[in-house]
Structures are given as C-alpha cells and as structure tokens.
Design a protein that fits this description.
Elements (H helix, E strand, L loop, with lengths): L3 H9 L9 E6 L11 H8 L4 E7 L2 E6 L3 E6 L5 E6 L8 E7 L2 E6 L6 E6 L5 H4 L12 H10 L5 H5 L10 H10 L13 H25 L27 E5 L2 E5 L6
Antiparallel strand pairs: 1-6, 2-3, 3-4, 4-8, 5-7, 6-7, 9-10
Helix pairs in contact: 1-7, 6-7
This protein binds a DNA duplex (14 and 14 nucleotides) through helix 6.
DNA sequence: ATACCTGTTTCCCG
DNA sequence: CCGGGAAACAGGTA
C-alpha cells in the first residue's frame, strides 16, 4: 500500500494514541524490521512515555514521545499501522505493539521489508533531519527535477521518479500515474527528455502528489476514478482518457503500466 | 504449483 | 570515484 498519501493516511491511524501514556510494549522477537536496532531499547524507552505527535515525510514516519524519544517507521512493501483495542490480541506478523489504556498501536509487516528505528536525544534524529525536500512542500522545485534528469542521462525516467533522494514518497503506481499524465514513455532515457517535457512532468508530479493527498491522504481508499490507478493492476485494460491499449511490462526494474499509443 | 508484488539495500559491472 | 541494473530480502495471494 504505501506511497506518499497512503503513508500519511496510515500514520493517522495512530492519532487516537496522541497524548496517551504507554503501559505496555511488545516487540517481535525475530522480525527483520528491527535490523538497525535492539528490541530491548523499544521496551525500555517507550514504557511509561507519552505519544506526543506524529509526522510523515514521503514514505517515512516519525513519532515523537515524551522524554526526547523518537521512533522512525517505514512500511516497506507490506507494512500496516493498525489501531487496536486495549486488549488487542497479538498476531503472527505484529512487529511492534504499543499498548495504552484505551487502545493498542500496532505495526504489522508480514514481509518485513519495513524498518523501525528509535532515538533518544534532544534534537531530531539525523535520519529525519537529512531528508530531501518534500514533493508537497515549498522547497520542492523544477530545479530539483531538472538537475536529477541531467545527472542521470542513461536512466529511464520511470526509474528516476522512484529515486527517493529526489522524489520522496513517489512509488510504483504514482510514477506510472505521473508519466501517463505527462504523456511520456516510462522507458525514455533522461538524456532524451526536452525542457518542455520537464516542465510538464514537474506539473504532473505536483498534480498527482497533491491529488493523492486530497483523496487517499484524507479518506484512505483510492484516488479519483479517472486516474490510471484503477486500470493498472491487470492486463488488457484501456487508457482511461484515450481508450487505447494499456500494456504492463518491467521498466526500471518494476512492473510498469502505460499506454504506448499516447506516451512517447 | 508457480508467478507476482504500491520498497530498499547490496553487490557487481563498466 | 560514479551510475546503472539485477538480485536479495520474506511471506501472502492469485
């Protein structure tokens, strides 16, 4: 599930725990989401602390607890945040369960591609401080897109859009949505992209990112019904705008859905 | 059974 | 050193 707006919506699921004290912590004994951390530090640091605020940046989440404690969380491919009851019953793939008097805050991740970190210090952790400009923030600019394109002339544009150093939050379906709206062939090498195409691409990045936040980010669920999103998951569908054939093939290492008749 | 998967990191090559 | 691509990570689902 988790790209920009889905991450924002997932993050909001723990909102019920804001201002509430932690009365119990469970950490999965083997899950790979703890590859950077000791499980014990989660129990030691979180117990009796209070969840103060939550934030997202692209696909990254930050939860701030009392006592200068920060949790960083990434959902990977199959991670989920769940709001459970106070007597929530542990599931097989629960990586972290934070129990509060009214609710349980659950991070579940069967494939364990997600990641969780913890940090106790006055200032924000460096893994949060050093994130690139958000694609829905003031500091994102066409210069960022342009310089990325100039730097990676031999890379397909689809692969570039997935690079979180430049476009934090864009994932596989958003990249396809953006390229479809930009009428660009996903396999086109960055070196072949013209200035006017860059301009169009920049505007469509903003359109898709903001449109996703307005729909999915707020309500959960799916983006507007006119989007490519709804046609991309299986073979044989038609382009929502032109009714030409959609194809699905691997480009930039990922399954890509596009309309060859209108994307060049 | 077999293939596929909304993500990232690591390793290898040029 | 850098850029680019494939493999690996692991389990659920069709």
């Amino acid at each position: 599930m988790p790209e920009l707006a889905e991450v924002a919506f997932a993050c909001s699921k723990w909102d019920a725990g804001l201002g509430k004290k932690v009365i119990g912590v469970f950490t999965h004994p083997t899950s790979r989401v703890y590859r950077d951390e000791s499980r014990d530090s989660f129990v030691e640091l979180l117990y009796k602390s209070t969840l103060l605020s939550s934030h997202t940046h692209g696909k990254q989440m930050l939860f701030k607890f009392s006592g200068n404690i920060f949790i960083g969380l990434h959902l990977g491919m199959t991670g989920k945040l769940i709001l459970g009851p106070k007597n929530y019953k542990q599931q097989k793939h629960d990586a972290l369960v934070i129990i509060q008097s009214q609710n349980s805050l659950v991070f579940q991740d069967p494939r364990q591609f997600g990641r969780i970190r913890i940090h106790k210090e006055k200032n924000l952790p460096s893994w949060w401080r050093n994130l690139p400009p958000s694609i829905i923030g003031k500091n994102f600019s066409s210069e960022i897109l342009e310089s990325a394109i100039y730097r990676h002339k031999r890379k397909p544009i689809k692969a570039l859009l997935l690079d979180q150093r430049y476009f934090p939050g864009i994932g596989n379906w958003m990249a396809d949505e953006i390229l479809w709206r930009s009428m660009l062939n996903p396999a086109k090498l960055c070196g072949k992209i013209t200035d006017s195409e860059i301009n169009k691409l920049f505007n469509e990045i903003l359109f898709v990112a903001r449109g996703a936040m307005k729909s999915i980010g707020v309500k959960g669920g799916d983006p507007p019904k006119t989007w490519l999103f709804h046609k991309r998951w299986n073979n044989g569908n038609l382009c929502p705008k032109t009714k030409t054939a959609l194809v699905r093939e691997t480009i930039g290492g990922r399954t890509t859905c596009w309309a060859p008749a209108v994307q060049s």
